[in-house]
Write a structure and sequence with these properties.
Layout: H1 2-23, E1 39-49, H2 53-67, H3 70-82, E2 85-88, E3 93-98, H4 100-105, E4 114-120, E5 125-132, E6 138-148, E7 151-162, E8 165-179
Antiparallel strand pairs: 1-3, 1-8, 2-3, 4-5, 5-6, 6-7, 7-8
Helix pairs in contact: 1-2
Length: 183
């Protein structure tokens, strides 16, 4: 049972993080071009689940990371950094590097296997829906508003699967540009 829990928790947390990333700046170049600043972005989010399972999983993962040997913890951090991300369990935030080339090509950070539809609802406001054919599958909708080229806020509701059961989640999120250099 311990092995199952170890694999189920990261999957649930990965689904939540993937949703946060796929909701953050997920426009397609053919349908919409967002005017955002390239560089290092921090996406902060708060996710609530109907069952409370994610909240328990995050708490247990934090305890597991704290008890992990320093070398192993550093290896995990380096792996995430090599993918342009860092993750703060206490602050529920991820940092993502967004290059001007990615913005120009419409290749903004998003989870592989996800499809998004985004439409402009105001000068700086957008609504979106998404569906991810991932493990576990995730889909949802929400809205976001950019207060500038360097900041946004939004919310979403989505459904994913946890231990074979549908799980409803709601998320509040905000993003801010940190600096031009991602290094």
């Amino acid at each position: 049972m311990q092995d199952f829990k170890m694999s189920a928790k990261p999957t649930l947390i990965t689904a939540a993080c993937a949703a946060a990333l796929s909701l953050s700046l997920s426009a397609s170049a053919e349908t919409l071009k967002l005017d955002v600043e390239p560089g290092l972005w921090q996406h902060t989010f708060s996710i609530k689940t109907a069952s409370g399972e994610l909240e328990r999983a995050m708490q247990e993962l934090e305890q597991q990371l704290a008890s992990m040997p320093a070398a192993q913890r550093q290896m995990m951090e380096k792996m995430m950094e090599s993918q342009g991300m860092s993750f703060d369990l206490k602050g529920s935030s991820v940092q993502v590097c967004l290059t001007q080339q990615e913005i120009d090509r419409g290749q903004l950070p998003q989870q592989d296997g996800c499809q998004q539809q985004i439409s402009q609802t105001g000068d700086n406001s957008y609504s979106f829906s998404f569906s991810c054919d991932t493990n576990p599958p995730t889909s949802g909708e929400g809205d976001m508003t950019f207060s500038s080229r360097k900041a946004y806020s939004g919310n979403a509701s989505f459904t994913t699967e946890v231990n074979g059961k549908a799980e409803q989640m709601t998320m509040q999120q905000s993003g801010k540009w940190l600096k031009a250099d991602c290094g």
